[in-house]
What we know:
Elements: H1 3-71
Amino acid sequence: MTDDKLLVRIDERTRNTYKLMEKLERHQAEQNGYIRENMKLSVSNKAFIRIICGVGGGLLLVMVGGFIAHLQGLW
């Protein structure tokens, strides 16, 4: 092959590599957005679960206390 043909092939490969890298970067940015949104939902779900557990735990304590008081004839 001549030097000109080799340079043309190298130039084509360079352009193809650059285009593929651009596609990968766009895809990665899109995935990062999805991951960020899912992390936000996960954090809000964890907070909601903590609230429910806190309320549920307090309610359970009151119910057990009421049951024990009922057994002892205090209520």
